Amino acid sequence: MLKMTQVIAAGTLMLSVSGLALAADVVKERQDGFKENVTHLKAIKAGEESGDHGAVEKAAEAVAAYAAKIPDLFPEGSGAGETRAKAEIWTDWKGFVAAAEANHQAALKLAAAAKTGVASDIAAAREDLGKSCGACHDKYRVPKT
Ligand code: HEC
Predict the structure, then answer these.
(1) 72 backbone φψ class: left, alpha, beta (φ>0; ψ -120 to 50)
(2) Which residues contact 60 (CB under 8 A, 6 or more apart)?
(3) What is the pLDDT of residues 57-94, one digit of tens each?
(4) Which residues contact 111 (CB under 8 A, 6 or more apart)?
(5) Is the distance from the beta carbon of residue 38 to the nearest atom of ligand 1 less than 6 Å?
(6) How many CA atoms lie within 13 A of 107 on its CB side?
(7) Cα angle vertex 61, ends 58, 67, to 5°?
(8) Residues 101 and 71 sit within 8 Å (Cβ to Cβ)
(9) Which residue's alpha carbon is at the smallest distance from atom 36 of ligand 1?
(10) Using an 8 Å Cβ cutoff, are 78 and 27 in contact?
């Protein structure tokens, strides 16, 4: 017969294994999302160059929508394994959420500028958006080695 402690130990192990699998899923999901952000930034640049402000607006809106999801993609415990997420995300959670919100606002501002269609405003808003990505990376992403 299994002792109660063995049952509990087995249950705990199973829980932590499924917890790890979940963490790996969310890490992949957010990394894919960030890769898509790069695609969106390229579409923004291309739209600016060709004067396709509708394309700029659409891509900026996609970045904004993703930014709103960023905090949910960093659940506690998802900082281990194949990830460049820094521990500071969770020790300074408010700062991290604020960085995601700044990214969200910058993307919305770019979408609004694209709608208005003033090229210099679009360029300035695109630069600010890029800076808001970098600001979060500087604080919360482990640099590439
Ligand atoms: C609120 C913080 C934050 C914002 C804003 C943010 N990032 Fe990131 N980004 C991260 C973190 C943290 C990682 C590391 C994720 C991991 O490895 O689990 C990351 C990873 C990435 C990666 C690597 C993905 C991979 O394949 O591993 C790219 C590319 C990237 N970000 C681009 C962007 C772009 C472009 C923007 C802006 C449009 C942006 N990020 C905005 C925090 C942020």
Answers:
(1) alpha
(2) 40, 44, 107, 108, 110, 111, 114, 129
(3) 999 999 999 999 999 999 999 999 899 999 999 999 99
(4) 56, 57, 60, 61, 64
(5) yes
(6) 22
(7) 145
(8) no
(9) 133
(10) yes
Atom index in ligand 1 nearest the CA of residue 38 equals 35
Residue with the two structure tokens 């194949």: 82
CA dist 83 and 61 (Å) reads: 26
Cα distance between residue 68 and residue 55, in whole Å: 20
Euclidean distance between CA atoms 54 and 127, whole angstroms: 18
27 Cβ closer than 6 Å to some ligand 1 atom: yes
Distance (Å) from CA 39 to ligand 1 centroid = 13
Residue for token pair 């999302």 = 33
- Reported as a single tens digit per residue, the pLDDT across 91-136 is 999 999 999 999 999 999 999 999 999 999 999 999 999 999 999 9
Q: Is the CB of 110 under 6 A from ligand 1?
A: no
CB atoms within 10 A of CB 120: 8
